[in-house]
Design a protein that fits this description.
The chain is α/β, with parallel strands linked by helices. It has a single domain, classed as ABC-type transport auxiliary lipoprotein component (Rossmann fold, 3-Layer(aba) Sandwich). It is built from 4 helices and 7 strands; from the N terminus they run βββαβααβββα. Strands 1, 2, 3, 4, 5, 6 and 7 form a 7-stranded mixed sheet that branches. α1 packs across α4. The longest helix has 18 residues. The protein is globular and about 60 Å long.
Length: about 200
Amino acid sequence: MLVAVSLLVCACAAPTKVNRTFAAPNVADSSFSNFLVIGVAGNYNSRALFERAMVAELKSKGVSATAYHLVVKGNQPLIRDDVIDVVKTHGYDAVLVTRVKSRKVDADITKGPAEMKVTMKQSGHLTFIRYDYEELNNLRKINLTASVVLTTEVHSAASEEMIWAIEFSSSGSMENNIEQLIDNAAGTIIESLVKDRLVRP
């Protein structure tokens, strides 16, 4: 018997909890209008997707923002001195860095109905015995969800120090819906930045 496995990746609608993990004493007086956005990820495509999504969110609030991978023209290693040079050259007043702290993948397997293959073996007047009936598979559905914990930091270009940080979770499909997961993360970050008045149009 052949076993066919269908990967149906579904999004998880778990609520997002945001914890502000750090705020400098002067954070209430800090706001920025020109961000350099950096995503830290092992996968370059995911990193580039996130940086572009975060830039779009920042620009929607009336501030300037640029994805790091566009400035350095591709998949370059993240080296502190290089980032500082980019900030000074282009005049950014803040650097926003987001990285994955942890990731968990859940698989939910559900059996489906068996399928049948019907093959005509011979012609004639009889009906049932003219055919072979073969059970092909026992269809299984595998629902995969990824839950990630992310941290986002804002660094002041003037002081070269971190002045604000949050930690939050984001859940969604691991394979087919990575863009939605990234959009959800970017949306969560911008809400927190606006709430703490760190963006200045």
